[in-house]
Amino acid sequence: MNWLHKITGRLEEVSAYLQTFGPFGLFAIALLDSALIPLPGGPDAVMLALSIHQDVPTMMLYALAGTVGSVIGCVILYYISRRAGRRALERFPPSKQARVKALVDRYDVLSVLVASVLPPPFPFKLFVVTAGVFRLSLFRFVLAVATGRAFRFLLEGYVAVRYGEQAKDFLAANYPAIGLGLAALIVVIFLLRGLMRRRKPAVEGRLTSAGEGGLPETEG
């Protein structure tokens, strides 16, 4: 397994080198990670490392760089998957494919938004590949990924600015609960919106029927 250790070591060197470029390095790491070339630690660890001892405006710049890099990387993977078709799903276990496909069928890009917020080992890339294979709306896909990743990087950055060296331990203890709570809130909001949209035509239809039924008859 020496070759694996060598590759891992080289990737760690690349990641460390890119970090020296600040937001541009984070942009590159996030793009590579989202486009199926993950670097050790990933953009989340880099976001934390770069944001410690920084002020909020600088942290927000890092979050923006990470978000844009992630979105571009996801769009690349989306188009690769769209072109490859169902072959792109072959490397994932059939059981996971079926679960993710069911979620995408039911919730559309909302499922991608929720997946983009949740921390590893949640299979976010499978959602991206599924979105590409089944040709979900690119605009709404990009909007979902951008919203989820922006929240995630901003949260990590805020915790890094607030807690400094203890940020990693704080997130390890609390982020799963925060992510699941936010995911549940997003789902509830969208379900309520869908319910309101379905009820509105029904209410308008009843009002129209009542109005037509209540018109007084005129004598000729």
What do these coordinates show?
This protein is mainly alpha-helical. The protein has one domain (8-200). It has helices at 2-19, 23-34, 42-51, 56-84, 94-107, 109-117, 124-133, 138-163, 167-213. The radius of gyration is 23 Å and the shape is globular.
Key phrases:
220 residues; mainly alpha
How would you name the oligomeric state of the polypeptide chains in this document? Answer: single chain
Task: Round the mean pLDDT to the nearest integer and report it.
Answer: 84
Q: Major sheet: size, sense and barrel closure?
A: none
Give the overall silhouette: globular
Sequence of secondary-structure elements: HHHHHHHHH
Strand content: under 5%
* Integer tally of domains: 1
DSSP strand count: 0
What class do helices, strands and sheet pairing give? mainly alpha
| Portion in helices | over 70%
Report how far apart the termini are: 97 Å
The value of Rg in angstroms is 23 Å
The number of helical runs is 9
